[in-house]
Amino acid sequence: VQLVESGGGLVQPGGSLRLSCAASGFTFSSSAITWARQAAGKGLEWVSGIYSDGSTDYADSMKGRFTISRDNAKNMVYLQMNSLNPEDTAVYYCAIPKYDGLRPPYDYWGQGTQVTVSS
Length: 119
Description:
By secondary structure, this protein is an all-beta fold. It has no helices and eleven strands.
């Protein structure tokens, strides 16, 4: 199983980024995929997730700003992040939930991609 995140970077407050997660080594179309993040000195925070049927869920602070999507033909999951603020600064990971649902614990996760929101 391999998950590879990309798309992070430095963005100004109010800006946007689109994160990508390339998946391989498992039956992607049957798997829920989730995004989580970890800010420096803080614990892992669940961000969003998408089920195999395309239904989605978001943490309250991300609703209306973030959009998760998937492309089963490409084994890709995306996280479109808009209206970013400095509190969104973190390393973002895509992960496969261990159990039914979208929340931790996770079976697998990638190396992460850094998102920094700063002027």
